[in-house]
Design brief:
There is one protein chain. The two termini are about 40 Å apart. The longest helix has about 35 residues. With about 250 residues, the protein is of the alpha+beta class. It is globular, with a radius of gyration of 24 Å. The strands form two sheets. Strands 6-5-4-1-7 form a five-stranded antiparallel beta sheet.
């Protein structure tokens, strides 16, 4: 028992020391950034990532440092990583737009219309975890209203409790549907950033196949499937092709 106690203390000490080191690295990186030493700041931020820790602030600062050095692909990549953790952050969106202006490829988008667009916009207002937590809260509300209805002797209270439980149940069904829809969207969403200065996209996953178009660093693509050292990608204008795996870096872990 005493040995287990010492092990727990040791693990807690190591965890605290690691957190303290990461905090020191972050502050040192910020200081270097403010001094205009962007490459040195990147080294400090990357040291934190190597420990397995990450945050939107870390990715944002890392992207800013790369942007100052005109590193197109890394700046877009880390702004996108920051946006994944803080999807509503205006500063990240604005800086990402600046970084995207440095890219060469001008790719159009096919606009979504009708009910599918509305549903997608509503679904993306929260993460899957957000919809799931909302559903749990609604379950508790439904149970509370139901208990009030069951044990109350007042007709007015019964009526209010019945309406409350019915509304909670209806909204619960909606949030569950949105949670599953969000899960499906996230599962299909496999974005990546082109890191090669220029990459030839092929019609098939081999070097002998026809070149269909070229992409340049910083362009965002969707990965559809993988075959050996090749990945099938899709652009925002629905064009597809095969690109070498080493030429892109996926955003999802």
């Amino acid at each position: 028992m005493q040995k287990v106690f010492y092990i727990v203390i040791l693990l807690l000490s190591l965890s605290f020391a690691s957190a303290q080191n990461n905090n020191d690295y972050f502050n040192q990186g910020n200081a270097l950034y403010n001094q205009g030493k962007y490459a040195e700041a990147i080294d400090k931020y990357m040291a934190i990532l190597k420990t397995g820790k990450h945050s939107s602030d870390l990715y944002f600062n890392l992207a800013n440092a790369h942007y100052k050095l005109s590193n197109v692909a890394p700046s877009v990549f880390y702004y996108e990583k920051a946006l994944q953790l803080a999807p509503g952050d205006k500063d990240i969106k604005d800086n990402l737009a600046y970084a995207q202006n440095m890219t060469i490829d001008a790719i159009g988008t096919i606009p979504e219309v009708g009910f599918s667009k509305v549903l997608k916009n509503i679904t993306n207002t929260m993460s899957f975890d957000g919809w799931a937590k909302t559903s749990v809260v609604l379950v508790f509300l439904f149970v509370i209203f139901f208990l009030i209805y069951y044990f109350s002797y007042s007709t007015l209270k019964k009526r209010i409790a019945f309406i409350g439980s019915a509304l909670a149940l209806i909204v619960l069904c909606v949030t569950l549907a949105l949670a599953f829809n969000k899960y499906g969207l996230d599962k299909k969403n496999n974005p990546a950033i082109v890191f090669a200065q220029e990459s030839k996209v092929k019609s098939e996953p081999n070097l002998r196949s026809e070149e269909v178009f070229r992409l340049h660093e910083g362009t965002k693509v969707q990965v559809l499937e993988s075959v050996n050292d090749w990945k099938k990608i899709k652009l925002s204008d629905d064009k597809t092709g095969w690109i070498r795996s080493n030429d892109i870096k996926t955003l999802n872990n």
